[in-house]
Amino acid sequence: MFNTLAYFSSVLYRDFTAYTSEKLEKLGLHFGLLFFLIYVGKHPGATPSDLTQTLHLDWGHSQRCITKLVESGFLTKEKVGRRYHLHLTEKGQEAFEVSHQVFFDWDAQRLEALTDEERQTLFALMRKVARRPEPAPHPAAECTNSAGQAGE
Length: 152
Description:
Blueprint: H1 5-25, H2 34-42, H3 48-54, H4 59-71, E1 75-80, E2 83-88, H5 90-111, H6 116-130
Antiparallel strand pairs: 1-2
Helix pairs in contact: 1-5, 2-5, 3-4
């Protein structure tokens, strides 16, 4: 059991969740809202339906989380025609930046013992195990972390 992908996946997930929760708690957020903020931050004006479908969420759960983020001042929900569109508030933009950055910071801490070549190999193997294709190259200006490195 201790030498299985499932075991290491569980350990890493718990560690990432704890790390992220600590960072988000300072903003009044919890881990479950992380991906909502990131999605709206990367897709300003997205509809609740877009978000729900893309993140493969239950409609009711998604609506409760969106409502919580609106009531807490992280999102606005503006009706345009027959649809609602979501946008980050100033508070939401700050939370988006923190939420996005935790991925890079956590990776840097966990992968510091690996060489660049080992990191590339690890990610190539993880993509293979997860059955995900090599990511398409992103324009440099699309998204960067605090170290100026391009990221997802």
